[in-house]
Amino acid sequence: MFSFRTTPIFEQDDLVLRKGRVGVFCTPNCWHPERGEYLYETFAKRGNLKHVFSPSTPEFSNKESHIYVPLEQLRETDVLIVEIQGAGARYFAYTNDLLELFSSMSEEKINIPVFIVDHINPAGRQVEGTMSEAMFKLAHRHGLTVGEIASLVHNDLNARFPLHVISVSATPSNRELLPWTIPIAADMPGYFTCSLYSGSALWSGTNVTPGIGTTRPYEIFGAPFMESLHNSYKMPPAADGATLRPCRFQPSVGEYAGRQCFGYQIILEPGASYHALSHALQLMNFVYRNCEEFSIINDDDSLGFNDRTLIDLLDDEVLYGYVTGDVEWETAREHIKEQEQKWIKKARKFLLYEENQLFRIK
């Protein structure tokens, strides 16, 4: 069962929301300024809040965070309300936590209704990359809201629990707050972050830092061993829609905490189209060819990325082959094009806001 609703969650008259035991799966993005309180506070005041499932680390932290839902606690609820802000890419932890929960609910036959309070996708409708071969066959940058991607996965799982999505336009905070006002996650603080994340997040599967622990995560990347690139005045490839600036930075956390890193800042051109994934692949190919110390495995566990590898994040042998020099760029680009077209054909069936269609950069 699926429904799309156009009135706020607080005005829904379902008996289970008024009288049932409520579980809330949320991030700080569930703040409702018109009420002056978080979503879970409203249900606490009603007297039927049972559990709150929220990020495992503080809001302003330097570690990757997750939202864990013990199934024994979920079974103590009659309804689950979800309000998180997505980042538009398949690597984003909180969205993946929700989809994994959907899978567990389906397997364990926990068929309580789920309500999603939907939010704008700050990365927009642009699609990038290839579809994963993993359980959730999503593109790197999928172009969907949390409600839309939940609907798609709910369908793929043939799940039996009811799913209800509260429209973006039903929630006043979506009109009063820009989608980046409250940070989506600790490492995603700014306006440009989501436009770069689908590409720059791939660095977390290598020994080059994407700038986590600095004021510009995913806008900068580098490592101590990349000093040789600065000294030789070698510039990585630029891309349509962005320019590069050599820079130095010192992360406060991670493998290079307290050490000087040499790298580059990606500067987006106002109003220009930019394919973050394609550019990141070209940058990685450049570093792979010019820095012997470059490793496509991240064995640093201080940020929660222990043993994360580039191949895990790419989940695509053609793209991985391009980074390591075994595949030509034209082959990789054509592969990306075909996969993006395939994803758009699949995902458009689950669009809830058809006034804005999915698109790819040609």
UniProtKB/TrEMBL annotation:
Residues 72-169 form the Peptidoglycan beta-N-acetylmuramidase NamZ N-terminal domain. Residues 196-353 form the Peptidoglycan beta-N-acetylmuramidase NamZ C-terminal domain. It holds the Pfam family NamZ_N. GO terms for molecular function: peptidoglycan beta-N-acetylmuramidase activity. Signal peptide: none annotated. InterPro entries: NamZ (IPR008302), NamZ_C (IPR048503), NamZ_N (IPR048502). This is DUF1343 domain-containing protein.
